[in-house]
Design goal:
Number of strands: 23
Mean pLDDT: 94
Strand content: 25-35%
Low-confidence stretches: 1-5
Largest sheet: 7 strands, mixed
Shape: globular
Number of helices: 10
Helix content: 25-40%
Length: about 475
């Protein structure tokens, strides 16, 4: 049931003044704030209008995950030996089945392969086969989100078997030689790295992927100076299958393993999301299992940095029956809608598409967002959720905002930012000691100018609550 606002509550004058100074209409703003243990609103304005949530959508995804999956949830990546292991040699393929772990890194993979070596697997006579069928995704699932590009790593689509979130990190460091030093993470087997970063001044470098006469080349161009120091370029030049294929081959070799075949992507689903069955229909025992960090750590990393791919993988994990049954986005949306109803929200209060905020169809009413936040404050996983939120003036996406005022260190808020939307949602501990749940959104082509108004609201709550 919707919770009514106090009829006397309105937008703080300082917030409306900041909005006017930015040249934005009052109609572009929606906000709601109330004490987590009180029925009346401290501030309310257009609270029943629906706004694009941007990355404050991750608040909803996080809370649903904590409730439905539990704080001890971990993602699993399985390795199955498809043959006998004799004297360290696998006579067959090594099948690696992705389970949706968005945080699987090249370091994790190398350490996992080293553990397999310690267990007696040193050589594979067949192939390493990669299975990413735990997520069943179609082109229509991405229609509302931006298309990924090599220069837009934050737009990379979800995948059940991803490595480094589909991103290549290129670290550039100055040297006393003619060219800067570059390092690629993850290492990519079969990819020739060409260093064209000259020590000629400036701090500019970019990368392109080229195929020249059958050879794949990663070319890093630019100019560098000693004063530039070490910097990292994020680059998404390959699809998930391409990146994992090259990276898995490199990490297996770095772990000291011998591969007689190739690293290949599985082309036909085995009929289940994770678990494998033998010819008799019995479940196979995996040779090895890699576990992700527990859910609270994943939420901490996701919300502090506003990680879109982690949020989209997390949303898919909510699909009913996963991981025994392959996840679908429709299944995840249905379970999310059921959870929102169980939270006491009505149809149209909050609408979730992919869980990250990249979609303009992810919308919510400020009052409904605060209702969720108040429910969560009383929930079993409240501390894990609050710990994941950026802290005003301290860390995450709020490290450089609200650095001098009563809100500094006392506001725990998820930020949201799209070309035409800005948002905040979370908690503010006022100087009175009372904790308030707050949600505020601005939707307008000039929404980038609304940040001072949103920050003014948080400062006002900290001062007047």
């Amino acid at each position: 049931m919707a919770e009514a606002a106090d009829a006397r509550a309105t937008a703080p004058p300082a917030v409306l003044a900041a909005l006017r100074s930015a040249g934005l209409p009052a109609s572009s703003l929606g906000l709601f704030a109330r004490a987590v243990h009180g029925p009346n609103a401290l501030a309310a304005f257009n609270e029943e209008q629906s706004y694009v949530l941007a990355s404050t959508t991750k608040v909803v995804t996080s809370l649903a995950a904590l409730d439905l999956l539990g704080p001890h949830y971990r993602w699993r990546t399985y390795a199955f030996a498809k043959g006998e292991i004799v004297a360290g040699r696998l006579h067959g393929d090594l099948l690696i089945v992705g389970g949706g772990n968005a945080q699987l890194s090249s370091d994790d993979l190398r350490q996992w392969f080293a553990q397999m070596r310690e267990r007696g697997l040193s050589e594979i006579s067949g192939n390493i086969v990669l299975d990413r069928f735990a997520f069943e995704l179609a082109a229509a699932d991405h229609v509302n989100t931006p298309k990924p590009g090599s220069d837009r790593p934050h737009h990379v689509w979800p995948d059940a078997l991803t490595l480094n979130e589909g991103v290549v990190h290129i670290e550039v460091q100055p040297t006393r030689a003619r060219r800067a030093e570059i390092r690629i993470d993850p290492p990519l087997a079969g990819v020739q790295v060409v260093n064209n970063v000259a020590m000629t001044g400036g701090c500019s470098a970019y990368a392109v992927m080229k195929s020249v006469e059958g050879t794949i080349r990663l070319v890093v161009n630019g100019s560098w100076a000693a004063g530039c120091g070490a910097r990292s370029i994020q680059f998404a030049p390959l699809s998930h299958p391409e990146l994992t294929t090259h990276a898995v081959a490199a990490q297996w070799a770095q772990a000291g393993g011998v591969l007689r075949g190739n690293v290949v992507d599985k082309t036909v689903s085995g009929g289940s999301a994770i678990l494998q069955r033998d010819a008799g229909g019995e479940l196979e025992v995996p040779f090895s299992v890699h576990l992700s960090p527990r859910l609270p750590q994943v939420l901490f990393d996701m919300n502090k940095s506003s990680d879109n791919m982690a949020a989209r993988n997390l949303m898919l994990t909510l699909s009913q029956g996963f991981p025994i049954k392959a996840a679908t986005l429709d299944g995840a949306r249905q379970r999310m809608a059921e959870w929102l109803r169980a939270q006491g929200l009505a149809a149209g209060d909050i609408e979730i598409d992919n869980g990250s905020g990249l979609s303009h169809t992810e919308r919510g009413k400020p009052r409904a967002m605060v209702q969720l936040l108040c429910n969560a404050w009383r929930g079993r996983s409240a501390q894990a959720f609050v710990d994941s939120l950026p802290i005003a003036g301290v860390d995450g996406t709020l490290a450089r905002r609200m650095r001098h005022g009563l809100a500094t260190g006392h506001a725990f808020l998820k930020t949201g930012s799209l070309r035409d939307a800005r948002a905040l949602a979370g908690y503010v501990r006022a100087r009175s000691g009372t904790v308030y749940a707050v949600a505020a959104m601005v939707n307008h082509p000039g929404a980038a100018r609304a940040t001072p108004a949103l920050d003014a609201l948080i400062e006002w709550v900290a001062r007047n609550g």
